[in-house]
Amino acid sequence: MKLFQPYSSNALQLKNRIVMAPMTRARNPDGIPNEMNARYYQQRAAAGLIVTEGTAISDTAKGVLHIPGLYTSQQVEGWKLVTRAVHEQGSVIFTQLWHVGRVSHTSIQPNGAAPVGASDIPAATSYAWGYDESGKESFVNCSIPRALTTPEVRQVVHDFANAARNAIAAGFDGVELHGANGYLIEQFLNPFVNNRTDEYGGTIENRARFLLEAIDACIAEIGAAKTAVRLTPYGGMHEMPHYEELEATYAYLAKELQKRNIAFIHLMDQKSRGSFALPEDFLTRFRNNYNGVIILAGGLDKPRSEQLINEGLIDLAGFGEPFIANPDLVARLQNDWPLTPPDRNLHYGGAEYGYTSYSVYQ
Ligand code: PHB
Fold first, then answer.
1. Distance between CA 300 and CA 313 in Å, rounded?
2. Which atom of ligand 1 is nearest to the CA of 230?
3. Fewer CB within 10 Å, N- or C-terminus of the chain?
């Protein structure tokens, strides 16, 4: 099966086509990666490629407590433990650069300020993980955001590039910009959230400008072969209503990203997260505009991954949640061994238990 064979593109040399997808695990109260995180990723490094959990690019980028960052020298030093541990296993590791935008709460923003977004339109029924009124850790309704000014948008572009430079200093093989799941970049793409009147709002080109400037800034820092992006066309997470120009927006992005020759585009089907499914025929249309490396994640299994690879619609298959309780997921898929179900209460926060404690198949 192609899934288990080595894969090579201009940017990537992988021992197989299985990708560990990014997953928030919130085990870094101080934001600094440590030996426990290194052990977790090393246990899962049979994957050809690992994309880490979303990593904050600045102190306004966070919408969840206890996530790691990539904007201080201590964080860079901490990530070196992780990249070294993964490279020892012959795997390749990208980090996911994350700015949540409006999907955040005043209790976890610097000085208790409003989260920043593409506009002041809130994600009114979505949740961040911060502190409630009594100071207790809790899911809290997202706060009303403040629209970034035009110069501030350029500063966030700069923050992405700065985090990309830090990622390379920390030993990562590249970065994946988080352009998915209703976070800041997608807030700019969506015309129901982006009501801006500057050059970052209005037309498809303007709504895509923030993403493409962030990509170009990362390319200028670390090169196109180390730059990638995650997108969720037709997703709905965190209040992303579908819009008339949705298909045209992603066709435009595919063509623009094609020109830039980046490492990969990582698509996610949000059906696995209780939101809208990626339409069946979308991958065919997307492939017509983009012949670079495509990863798909979200609810895949072995037969469907192999089929999509054989049809040329995707190149690499991403698995998220199955990797949590199955550190040896690659071997289990290869041998058709049963999968251990995860304990969802242990996904976020805590320590080793439910993180590095899951064992290989006996
Ligand atoms: C989550 O914490 O559930 C989460 C984080 C980042 C995503 C999606 C979901 O992109």
1. 14
2. 10
3. C
183 counts as catalytic: yes
pTM exceeding the 0.90 threshold for the entire prediction:
yes
- CA 259 / ligand 1 centre spacing (Å): 29
Q: Is any ligand 1 atom within 6 A of the Cβ of residue 24?
A: yes
CA angle 341, 346, 352 (to 5 degrees): 105
- Predicted confidence at residue 94, as pLDDT, reads 99
Q: Three-class SS of residue 281? A: coil
> How many angstroms is it from 183 CA to the middle of ligand 1?
9
- Picking from 250, 240, 129, 234, the residue whose alpha carbon sits closest to that of residue 182 is 240
What atom of ligand 1 comes closest to residue 64's alpha carbon? Answer: 2
Strand stretches in 214-285, DSSP E: 227-231, 264-268
- Atom number, ligand 1, closest to the C-alpha of residue 237: 8
Q: Are 185 and 160 in contact (CB under 8 A)?
A: no
| Ligand 1 pocket check for 275: Cβ under 6 Å | no
Q: Which of 7, 40, 41, 183 is catalytic?
A: 183
Residue with the two structure tokens 């009114």: 124
Buried b (16+ CB within 10 A) or exposed e, 66-98: bbbbbbeeebbebbebbbebbbebebbbbbbbb
- State the DSSP code for 327: T
Angle, alpha carbons 164-251-155 (nearest 5°): 30
User: Residue 251: its pLDDT value, please?
Assistant: 98
pLDDT, residue 44, reads 98
Q: Is 249 in the pocket of ligand 1 (CB under 6 A)?
A: no
pLDDT along the chain (362 residues), means of 10: 97 98 98 98 98 98 98 98 99 99 98 98 97 97 98 98 99 99 99 98 98 99 98 98 98 98 98 95 98 98 98 98 98 98 96 98 95
Say yes or no: domain 2-346 is CATH 3.20.20.70. Answer: yes
Q: For atom 10 of ligand 1, which residue has the closest CA?
A: 181
Say how many Å lie between the CA of residue 337 and the centre of ligand 1. Answer: 28
